[in-house]
């Protein structure tokens, strides 16, 4: 499948106000960490944006506001076409069939529209509040393919779950880590510490991360929270997955 390298608007389409651009489409090579980050784009490479969004076509609270939150009634095809118009080449969907059906965006219709308009879809079904069901190594395989096929060619990617905050935020964090956009580990920092980013570790935790790993994860999460919202990466399990992913990348690059 051939792809063009579209010029993105400086901010998300007003009708897709839920979208959050994580990086700009300007050349970022000069700002990349010079340490051994997992992927180092060639000098002058223009990276495709990563965007976060709630589920396209989402329909919730149609009987009226609940706890002060108003109804949402979006049109699936219109949302997907707007994404295509923004130059997005691939959507990463973190929902399973049952949750998509519940949200009013059934997978058969979603699949039909994306095929008609030429949008690729990568499905990573993930239970609410949890990290990807894939191991860090298998998620890395999917991310590597996604980055090489789209990001490094200047083609934007959009990630969504239900609200585009927790599960989608984890994928966005892994994308940033994979590209080394927040730097990489301090090689001289080997001090081990208790993992307590969101909650104390269980007694079954046997591999404690070092301070450098925790600092890197906290930095990436803070970037996503500033750009998307304070609730991005919502649970201890999601934060722990990011620690595991950093440790995997560290072992892989050793």
Automatic annotation (TrEMBL):
Pfam families: PTP-SAK (PF22784)
Gene3D superfamilies the record matches: Protein tyrosine phosphatase superfamily (3.90.190.10)
GO MF entry, a single one: catalytic activity, acting on a protein
The Tyrosine specific protein phosphatases domain, residue ranges: 141-181
SMART domains per record: PTPc_motif
Name of this protein: Tyrosine specific protein phosphatases domain-containing protein
Record key words, sorted: Hydrolase
Keyword match Hydrolase: yes
Classification via InterPro entries: Prot-tyrosine_phosphatase-like, PTP, PTP-SAK, Tyr_Pase_cat, Tyr_Pase_dom
Signal peptide: none
Natural source organism: Moniliophthora roreri (strain MCA 2997) (Cocoa frosty pod rot fungus)
Organismal lineage: Eukaryota, Fungi, Dikarya, Basidiomycota, Agaricomycotina
PANTHER family documented for this protein: TYROSINE SPECIFIC PROTEIN PHOSPHATASE AND DUAL SPECIFICITY PROTEIN PHOSPHATASE
Region of interest (Disordered), residue spans: 1-21
Keyword Flavoprotein: no
């Amino acid at each position: 499948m051939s792809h063009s390298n579209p010029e993105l608007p400086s901010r998300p389409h007003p009708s897709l106000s839920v979208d959050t651009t994580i990086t700009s489409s300007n050349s970022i090579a000069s700002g990349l960490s010079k340490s051994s980050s997992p992927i180092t784009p060639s000098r002058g490479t223009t990276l495709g944006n990563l965007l976060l969004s709630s589920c396209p076509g989402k329909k919730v609270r149609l009987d009226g506001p609940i706890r002060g939150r108003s109804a949402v009634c979006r049109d699936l095809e219109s949302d997907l076409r707007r994404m295509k118009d923004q130059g997005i080449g691939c959507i990463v969907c973190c929902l399973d069939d049952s949750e998509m059906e519940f949200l009013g965006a059934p997978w058969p219709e979603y699949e039909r529209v994306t095929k008609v308009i030429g949008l690729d879809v990568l499905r990573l079904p993930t239970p609410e509040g949890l990290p990807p069901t894939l191991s860090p190594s298998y998620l890395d395989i999917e991310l590597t393919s996604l980055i090489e096929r789209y990001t490094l060619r200047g083609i934007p990617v959009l990630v969504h779950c239900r609200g585009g905050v927790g599960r989608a935020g984890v994928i966005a964090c892994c994308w940033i880590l994979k590209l080394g956009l927040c730097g990489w580990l301090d090689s001289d920092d080997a001090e081990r510490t208790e993992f307590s980013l969101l909650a104390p570790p269980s007694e079954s935790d046997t591999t404690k991360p070092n301070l450098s790993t925790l600092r890197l994860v906290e930095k990436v999460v803070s970037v996503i929270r500033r750009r998307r919202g304070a609730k991005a990466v919502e649970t201890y399990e999601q934060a722990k997955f990011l620690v595991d992913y950093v440790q995997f990348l560290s072992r892989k690059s050793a």
